[in-house]
């Protein structure tokens, strides 16, 4: 199938993927742009999974302070090479994550970071709610698991809808960046400062 350079360019602008990858995805999707986007996302996930075990010894620490000066965040993002650490897209991603942390106030990076006691407590609360709603006993576990996903999307950075594109999670955006730069990237840690919370605790 003959794919015009204009369509390849448009897909590249919308996804950030390379020209060759966009052309291949459009050919595989028989010219369907939305299907090509899905293909690119799946490839990004596969690449990210392959890279996930590779060591990340380089990176950047960046910050964002809200214009009112009362809320700010520091975030440490790791990558594999000094070359990627200096890459403008990598730096922009780190800055966007710091801004996202200020806006969405996550408590942990991923569900795996949540203490087991917190998860068990939340499940107990959700189970009690489902029982109070007179949900059938045989589906309560499924209801609890479904509501736990919502809980994760509220408190875990990687599970939250991304500030710049709420159609994707932070994790999906991270996977796309990994596929683009060809290196493992990891959000190592963050801290969020809020003067209002400090004053409430004093």
TrEMBL record:
Superkingdom, according to UniProt? Bacteria
Keyword Ligase tagged: no
Encoding gene (name): tsf
GO terms assigned for molecular function: translation elongation factor activity
**Protein name, per record:** Elongation factor Ts
Q: Name one GO cellular component term.
A: cytoplasm
- Specify whether Protein biosynthesis is a keyword of the entry: yes
Q: Name one Pfam family in it.
A: EF_TS
- Cross-referenced Gene3D superfamilies: 1.10.286.20, DNA helicase RuvA subunit, C-terminal domain, Elongation factor Ts, dimerisation domain
**Cross-referenced CDD domains:** UBA_EF-Ts
């Amino acid at each position: 199938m003959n794919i015009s350079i204009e369509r390849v360019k448009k897909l590249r602008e919308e996804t950030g993927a390379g020209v060759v990858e966009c052309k291949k995805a459009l050919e595989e999707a028989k010219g369907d742009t939305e299907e090509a986007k899905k293909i690119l996302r799946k490839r990004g996930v596969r690449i990210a999974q392959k890279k996930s075990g590779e060591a990340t010894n380089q990176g950047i620490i960046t910050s964002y302070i809200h214009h009112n000066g009362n809320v700010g965040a520091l975030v440490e993002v790791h990558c594999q090479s000094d070359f990627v650490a200096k890459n403008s897209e990598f730096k922009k991603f780190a800055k966007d994550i710091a801004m996202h942390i200020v806006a969405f106030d996550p408590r942990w990076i991923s569900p795996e970071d949540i203490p087991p006691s917190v998860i068990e407590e939340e499940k107990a609360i959700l189970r009690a709610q489902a029982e109070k709603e007179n949900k059938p006993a045989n589906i309560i576990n499924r209801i609890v698991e479904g509501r736990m996903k919502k809980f994760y999307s509220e408190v875990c950075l990687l599970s939250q809808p991304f500030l710049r594109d709420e159609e994707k999670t932070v994790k999906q955006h991270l996977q796309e960046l990994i596929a683009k730069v060809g290196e493992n990237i990891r959000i190592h840690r963050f801290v969020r400062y809020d003067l209002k919370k400090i004053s409430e605790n004093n």
